[in-house]
Design a protein that fits this description.
19% of the residues lie in helices and 37% in strands. By secondary structure, it is α+β, with helices and mostly antiparallel strands.
Length: 133
């Protein structure tokens, strides 16, 4: 049995070359176990994050994404701030054509919060939608 590799939260993400940079295609990553702390009470907040992006030259490496997301577990942050911070980190690392991060936070005090943040490369426009019969 191979030795296990220790892992710990990390503040950055690794990338790898896009295997098909000439084609616009969408990568969707669902992260249903996101946790952070409420900056006011210190109580845990739970959310599902959904990352959708059209890569250019680089793609997000999944294990490093998992370790990056883990780094928020013990941090207090407002939902709006951390959604934008995560998007900024991922967009900086990958320089995608388009990237959207949606954070859907579990109920807190009878309120649900969803935050959607987007990055669009200047000059990039999506292909027209194709309507199939």
């Amino acid at each position: 049995m191979p030795p296990s590799t220790p892992t710990a939260p990390q503040s950055n993400v690794d990338t790898f070359p896009n295997p098909n940079p000439a084609r616009d295609y969408t990568i969707r990553i669902r992260m249903p176990e996101f946790t952070c702390l409420c900056p006011k009470t210190g109580q845990p907040d739970f959310a599902e994050l959904i990352l959708e992006y059209i890569p250019a030259e680089r793609c997000v490496e999944l294990k490093s994404l998992k370790l990056y997301i883990w780094s928020f577990r013990d941090r207090g942050a407002f939902h709006e701030a951390l959604t934008n911070e995560i998007l900024d980190t991922l967009a900086t690392a990958t320089a995608p054509k388009f990237m959207r991060l949606t954070g859907t936070f579990n109920v807190r005090g009878g309120l649900y919060t969803s935050v959607v943040a987007e990055f669009r490369r200047p000059g990039w426009a999506p292909a027209p939608a194709v309507a199939l019969p």
